[in-house]
Amino acid sequence: MEFLEGVKKKEIFAIRELEERKPFGEKVSLQGAVHSIRNMGEVEFVILRNREGLFQAVIEKEKGKWELKEGDFVTVRGLLREEARAPRGMELQVERVERISTPSEPMPFAVDKWNLELSLEAKLNMRPIALRNIKERAKFRIQEGIVRAFRDFLYGQGFTEIHTPKIGAKGAEGGANIFKLDYFHKPAVLAQSPQFYKQMMVGVFDRVFETGPVFRAEKHNTKRHLNEYTSLDFEMGYIDRFEDIMAMETGFLKHMTAFLEKEYENELKLLKVTLPKVDAIPMVPFEEAKRLVSEKYQRPMRNPYDLEPEEEHLIGRYFKEEYDSDFVFVTHYPSKKRPFYAMDDPADPKRTLSFDLLFKGLEVTTGGQRIHSYPELREKIKNRGMSEEGLEQYLDTFKHGMPPHGGLGIGLERLTMQLLDEENIRETTLFPRDLSRLTP
């Protein structure tokens, strides 16, 4: 009988290990896929690709002919030597090759090119192959870094990570943008957000966060909308004012940029990303933001209750030009356009203690303070002409007391898109779901 005692150490080096140790003159083994082959007559330069990036191997013809081809997955062993002309200042002089697997047909396109020169639709149709391109893959390494930074920062701030259901009886946001389904002969919906559960858990853990999918049945076909996206959510209790939520997000953004700069330096350089400054983020009330851009850019105000995409763009432009800030918090949105649980401003009940964060002229976060008083919550539901049906358990939580609290939701794909200066959110969505796409 055998027993397992933990992670099995393989006799295979990681690229980072080689860069740190630099064991020149020693025999080492590497694993990866054949990314590209350059035949120089008596010598072949084989570029290997694995989770850490690319590494150069050299095969001298007289030492063996393995007839490698692009897409082969291999283990190579040989002498590590210093080579200033190689991408990492070193290369592997191959002495032995073990082919792990080989493709059944040629690649549909050259993944080793810097730009794939494919349409977005073509890239999405062949997503698992297109992502083998180093540039395409780097986008999602940076996205990984955003999520890691979110978790890391909030753990440091005393938050507890939770995981809430994505199938429920009622939507948190209301309205018609809900995916409905049959759940064992009962009506159910896909979660628009973890809002109700986040609030309920504030009464348990004080501070909670979650990263998970949310679903919106919106019939949008734009460069900024998806029907399933990943939301970075947190909710925190014992707040003094709704600005505490914005301050917490500012702290996260500072941590995120520092974390990416340290841990994802290679990907940032590869994609030529300039990280935004987040030393201080300006705040502006909703009505003032509309007035400022209307006056400066001679744009008439049309919708008094919400920001149109063009207005968001102009607000972002205004604060970049006037304050050199890529971010701006727009606060005090009209109560008419916010969910029933949003706390109204005591100074003006037509406004709410809520906000959106715009990043380069696009909304990436929505948040604010919530109503924590049970009578006030029921009163607002009543005033909106809503039914309490389906909200019973949510409301029961407030019967037993809740601290003043608030929170937010960040759209991960939008945040990544703006960080990387992409024009279409599908570029920063691993497998997009929109009006027309259910595969791959």
Q: How much helicity do the residues have?
A: 25-40%
**Average pLDDT over all residues:** 94
User: Which secondary-structure class do the elements indicate?
Assistant: alpha+beta
Tally of helical runs = 12
Count the E strands: 18
Strand order, largest beta sheet: 6-10-11-18-17-16-13-12
Q: How would you characterize the largest beta sheet?
A: 8 strands, mixed
The best one-word shape is elongated
N- to C-terminal distance = 42 Å
Low-confidence stretches: none
Strand content: 25-35%
Radius of gyration: 26 Å
Order of helices and strands: HEEEEEHHHEEEEHEEHHEHHEEEEEHHEH
Task: Write up this protein.
The protein has 440 residues and is α+β, with helices and mostly antiparallel strands. It contains twelve helices and 18 strands. It has helices at residues 15-21, 120-125, 127-130, 134-156, 195-205, 243-263, 265-271, 286-297, 309-323, 374-383, 392-399, 412-419, and strands at 27-39, 43-50, 53-60, 73-82, 90-101, 160-161, 167-168, 180-183, 186-190, 207-215, 228-237, 283-285, 327-331, 344-345, 348-352, 354-359, 362-369, 405-411. Strand 4 and strand 5 form a beta hairpin. The model has no long low-confidence stretch (mean pLDDT 94).
